[in-house]
User: What shape does this take?
Amino acid sequence: MEKRQILIVDDEYINRALLAEMFHDEQDTYELIEAENGEEAVRKIEDGHDIVLILLDIVMPVMDGFRVLEFMEEKGLLREIPVILITGETIQDSEDRAYSFGVADVIHKPFYPHIVKRRSSNIIELYQNKRNMEMRLKEQEIAIRAQEQEIRETNEFMIDALSSVVESRSVETGDHTKRIKYYTRLMATCLKEHFPQYNLTDFQVDAISRASVLHDVGKIGISDAILLKPGRLTNEEFEIMKTHTTIGCDLLEKFYRNRTSEFYRYCYDICRHHHERWDGRGYPDHLAGDAIPLSAQIVAVADVYDALVSPRVYKSSFTNEKAFEMIMNGECGQFAPDILKCFELAREDFFNINKVIGVFDFS
Assistant: This one.
């Protein structure tokens, strides 16, 4: 095991010898390396393997102590390696300048070796404890991220499995939930980039996109006679179909443990409110305007668009252009102006979705 190093930098041999003598009884712990000027010190620092302390003189030929500090500052080393300045100067400005670099201590010549030794030991211990703490925190952070990734992958698997079960019972075309997820990501990303007043983050865009696949999870509770009916629903049947919004929320409340999480709130809001409309004529709660959660407003447009461009047993598919016009003209209900603007900005991406759906990674 290599010894930790202490670098002593002073142009006077006698000072280097005095400082080195302080650590004579700790030769098994530390390797003492010396430099006669700042230029040599820089080379030693670059070549060092585990320098735990630098005892640095200020006034030296070739390169002085402050230029050594400037080098260490540029390389980001002053946070990692403590420096004790040992100087014969008594000018306050020099001391202030030294501390502005973040040196650990300033000791004036002539110095008392036992005082320097005690300060050096304390500073080494302080920095080593700090380094060990940072390493432990880093290890914990890595472990937590690994756990979060595992939980996320498990959640993704369960969400995808659940949405696939719903889709397998539905008369809707395959990959509906994948398309909704991609449409939602397009809309949310556009909203983040062009409407900063909503303060959407990348994390929120991702969470809303992932939550969107559960928008129709409540259809699990709709009978096959209605869900698989090969034709238009009667008014009574449609009223039952509309309950998939609240059935889905009941399922989420029963099976989702962390109901305080932001992701759960997106899942719940999207599931319950993706059929609400800006003018209050949607369902199940007849919310209007900004009372409709933003995540649900985004998914609402994605869901309507996919329904229009996909064939159903009771209708043929509309063209991309016709579907776009119907939504923009309010033929499918009223949507928020900002949401419609995002839909307009993302128009070409929506039109191309069926061509690119197979090459996108939705994880």
